[in-house]
Design brief:
With 273 residues, the chain is an alpha+beta fold. The chain folds into three domains: 9-78; 92-192, no CATH class; 200-267, no CATH class. 53% of the residues lie in helices and 17% in strands. The chain has ten helices and seven strands.
Length: 273
């Protein structure tokens, strides 16, 4: 599949190990069981399992963009370049989330920081679509420094031939700004598993709500999703039955309404004076 990244040699062994484990599970066990095992791997911080879950939700039949974004975000924050690029595309097109060009730029840049010239080419396309030609040329110029691609070179040559001297100077300035932006992006960090001895359980509540995820003493505790009867849901960290830590809330239509820190079941919102 074209959406799978070309994996650096140091990580290919661990990726293949995870991939063939999941391949075996999906062909030798009920899909629900295989999906649960993959979810446990992902909840334990396995970047490749998180990435594969994202691909399953994107391409394993009917797309589930919300679920895909959740897992791709976790993989991307650990440095998965393809996940970064796919998040950029999701925000640029509004797939599973409201369209947000600044977030699209952010994730394409994160993909570039992770070593993906394809993310820079996607950033070029985004800027070109919005007629920001100096920024578009800057992204494509940096992409060519990472990857020798004759098609990209021809596109850049055509672009620069149609620019004025002042516009070319603007493009060179944007190259410098983009380099600085990539340097200033936060480093990727490997995820610490929330619970090493994790169990995935399903809990049903009298009000019709449902929880699926990690539990302790019969309460949501760890990582999971709680869905209400009306379709609204919360996905993220729980502590003693309440959202606590990082989490995402979605409304009945599946649109993201809040992403960030939660304390004791309430979102931590910073109010401006």
């Amino acid at each position: 599949m074209k959406n799978f990244r070309r994996i650096p040699l140091p990580t290919i062994t661990s990726f293949l190990k995870t991939f063939f484990l999941i391949f075996f599970l999906f062909h030798s066990a009920p899909k629900s069981f295989a999906h649960e095992k993959l979810s446990i791997q992902a909840l334990r911080g396995d970047e490749n399992a998180q990435f594969l879950l994202g691909q399953i939700h994107l391409f394993g039949g009917e797309p589930h963009y919300q679920e895909a974004l959740i897992w791709l975000t976790k993989a991307a924050k650990q440095g998965n370049a393809v996940a970064c690029k796919q998040l950029g595309r999701a925000f640029s097109l509004g797939l599973g989330t409201p369209r947000n060009l600044s977030r699209a730029v952010h994730w394409y840049q994160r993909g570039a920081k992770a070593g993906s010239p394809d993310s820079l080419f996607s950033l070029y396309l985004l800027h070109k679509e919005n007629e920001a030609l100096a920024k578009a040329g800057a992204a494509l110029s940096l992409a060519l420094k990472q990857k020798n691609n004759q098609r990209w070179k021809a596109i850049l040559d055509k672009l620069t031939n149609n620019l004025s001297i002042s516009e070319i100077a603007d493009m060179e300035t944007e190259v410098s700004h983009l380099k600085d932006a990539l340097v200033e992006l936060p480093n990727f960090t490997k995820e610490k598993p929330l619970l090493k001895q994790s169990r995935i359980e399903r809990l049903n509540f009298p009000n019709g709500a449902e929880y699926k995820g990690q539990t302790r003493n019969g309460l949501a505790h760890g990582f999971g999703r709680k869905s209400k009867q009306n379709g609204a849901s919360y996905f993220g960290c729980f502590e003693n039955g309440l959202p606590h830590g990082y989490g995402q809330a979605f409304d009945q239509k599946g649109l993201l309404t809040f992403e960030g820190a939660w304390i004791g079941g309430k979102p931590l919102v910073h109010k401006t004076k």
